[in-house]
Predict the 3D structure of the following.
Amino acid sequence: MGMMPALFLSAVLRQLGPCPQPSRCPYCPADTPPHWIGWGYYERYAGDPEHPSKKVVVRRFRCKIVARTFSLLPHALLPYCSIRTGLVLAWLHTLHVEGTPLSRLARQMRVSRSTLRRLSVGFRRARQALRLPSRPAALTAAAFLEALVPMALTVVPLFQAWKEREPKHSIVGLHPR
Ligand SMILES: [Zn+2]
């Protein structure tokens, strides 16, 4: 695999689009028909390296059955992560597939080593709970990332499905709501 597909995917997952519509409620079985209503908005940081103070408005929904709220972030953002999805993916690929030393990547990207270490540890931990379509459960960190790249745009709905779960899953962590 050359650099192009990885770069393409990274670029797509860096563009801040609108919040997607939820396809399910995280608290109820996945096939329960839509039963949620709009429940206001909140602001969060947009993970924008050029404008670190930039924020996005995220729609909140409320499940009418369990009376709890949830939301769904744009594709470029991961739950509890201040860095855009595409950048996280590119950095993990550089570290785990290309084997670039963490300290060198930190220098090149002007990001702290502790940030990279946190993402890398989070990824290696989360990976064990994440399943890629038609792949065996246990993949090494490098094999997991290499399998993502040729999936191209199907990564977008896959990552969304992970975020819509309870707990929320992402490539760098699993989070209860
Ligand atoms: Zn529900």
